[in-house]
Design a protein that fits this description.
By secondary structure, the protein is mainly α. It contains six helices and no strands.
Length: 138
């Protein structure tokens, strides 16, 4: 796994972590879910599997924080979602916003290997148009 139970302690008080996880299996499940969620957002642009195999200080700090915050949110969701602190929910929403920005190429991760799409530019086809105008005389 990319992060361990010990790594979760860097984002939350150790006693609180022990209460919300109840056992190591719940924490391992939350970490797996967090890694899968980060992978779904980043797999098109970056070699995220190579990053998720790293350990220790070789890990990218931003990806580490994203996985940790999502995993802690999942720990609360598994144990007691009704008493989740607002800061934990806000950290999760911030992590998702950053992941969406990276996916939409409004932000980037400089420490990760970018996948070669064979050409310059995006791997996505953008669609849409201008906002609809009101041309009706009233």
């Amino acid at each position: 796994m990319y992060i361990t139970y010990e790594d979760l302690k860097t984002g939350i008080n150790e006693e609180t972590l022990a209460v919300i996880t109840r056992n190591q299996n719940n924490a391992a499940q939350a970490i797996r879910e967090a890694e899968a969620e980060v992978r779904t957002y980043l797999c098109v642009r970056y070699d995220i599997d190579a990053e998720l195999r790293r350990t220790g200080d070789s890990r990218d700090a931003t990806v580490f924080r994203l996985v940790r915050d999502i995993a802690l949110y999942r720990c609360y969701a598994i144990s007691n979602p009704t008493s989740m602190p607002e800061i934990r929910r806000q950290n999760y929403e911030d992590a998702l916003k950053l992941l969406r920005d990276i996916q939409g190429e409004r932000a980037s991760l400089s420490g990760l290997t970018r996948l070669d799409s064979g050409s310059q530019g995006s791997n996505y086809v953008k669609y849409g148009g201008n906002t609809k105008r009101k041309n009706k005389w009233v």
